[in-house]
Amino acid sequence: MWLLPWSVNSDFYSQYEINDQVSGFSEKSIWSLFNAKRKSTHEAVSIFRFDIRDPTSPSVDRAKQSLKRIKTLRHPSILKYVDSCENEKSICIVTENVTPLVDYLEKASDEFNVTQREFSIAFGLLSVAKGLSFMNNDCQLNHNNINIYSIFVNSSGVWKIGGLECICSVDDKPPPRHECLDEKYTPPEILDPAKARHPGGKFAVDSWGMGCLVWECFNKPLTPSSSVKVVGKMPKTLSKHYNRLVQTSPKHRVSPMDFIKSCNDDDECKFFKSPLLDTILYLEEIQLVKESSEKAKFFNSLESELESFPSDICKNKILPDLINAFEYGDAGSPILNPIFKIGKMLSEEEYQSRLVPCIIKLYTYKDRATRSKLLQQLDSYVGYLAQNVINDQIFPQVLQGFMDPDVMALRSTSH
């Protein structure tokens, strides 16, 4: 547990249980990053801390800028603000619990197969592109600091944009980056103003950053010897579209979202047409789907697809969306099989907190198909149910099944 640096403003810090510092992060950022937990709710959070050693340092203004922006920029692709504290010694920002992307990708290399890793990267890059589109177009802001060290991943596998200390209006000149970041992250027209004679779109700086990020997802973090023109391990079908992000002339760069669209318009490039992205998009729009037969077909096929998806996205993104779709989207009983399949990925603690309350609620439904599915799956979850829950909340519903005139429901009950 981390104790000594948190003595100032003890009222604020007493709300959190501060755990270990994330190693290596402060070498590439003005911030130090800590894992923590809010004591009142036991909610896991992240704390970004900037120590004010020299009040005249430009980094102080950058840290204050970051705090200002994270409070006001609200978007699913931007790091979620929770709390903050500012005094003469430090600036602290509390956010949703996240992992630096550089650490997440290293872990993914060990835990995911090739398909799962590419699905995760596609999902993440799409999220970043959406966030940059929001900033560039809706807010008229440039991020100016997109790279592997400014992107974070939450428990749902969603990539979040952080590193907001270099944001400026699209009409202003970008401020200098952190001195520890390699020069490769800086667009050519900023290093050499002569190359800015033919200016590009307002997104040009962030397009270069997006290109660096794409490169780093398939290779390693950029170093002085790296070249964004050498695609390395990047899929060939993706590389020709990637090259439009890192054009030397800003005039010829495409926006991050146009990069995604150009990939989707290319029949040979399937990178952003993965079953994972199709699943997430379908669940987000399921209330617009009218036909029950279409929903049933989707959920029946989803069960077999789940094994190819990253487990964190299944457990923390898809599972809540499935439960929500069942309760509010009129998804019907076919959705239960993929729900229980994801249940097999959960730890006992996760199962108790996420699925058991759902199962108890499902037993109150009078729909015969739902009851039949629940009873067919009984062996997969009965071991997670407390005896009093079985006696008081489950068994009475099973007894009702014996009185059901529907033949299939009765067979399921007596199985």
From TrEMBL:
<feature type="domain" description="Protein kinase">
    <location>
        <begin position="19"/>
        <end position="382"/>
    </location>
</feature>
<keyword id="KW-0418">Kinase</keyword>
<comment type="function">
    <text>Regulates COPI-mediated retrograde protein traffic at the interface between the Golgi apparatus and the endoplasmic reticulum. Involved in the maintenance of the Golgi apparatus morphology.</text>
</comment>
<keyword id="KW-0808">Transferase</keyword>
<dbReference type="GO" id="GO:0004672">
    <property type="term" value="F:protein kinase activity"/>
</dbReference>
<protein>
    <recommendedName>
        <fullName>N-terminal kinase-like protein</fullName>
    </recommendedName>
</protein>
<dbReference type="InterPro" id="IPR011009">
    <property type="entry name" value="Kinase-like_dom_sf"/>
</dbReference>
<dbReference type="GO" id="GO:0005524">
    <property type="term" value="F:ATP binding"/>
</dbReference>
<comment type="similarity">
    <text>Belongs to the protein kinase superfamily.</text>
</comment>
<dbReference type="InterPro" id="IPR016024">
    <property type="entry name" value="ARM-type_fold"/>
</dbReference>
<dbReference type="InterPro" id="IPR011989">
    <property type="entry name" value="ARM-like"/>
</dbReference>
<dbReference type="Pfam" id="PF00069">
    <property type="entry name" value="Pkinase"/>
</dbReference>
<dbReference type="InterPro" id="IPR051177">
    <property type="entry name" value="CIK-Related_Protein"/>
</dbReference>
<dbReference type="InterPro" id="IPR000719">
    <property type="entry name" value="Prot_kinase_dom"/>
</dbReference>
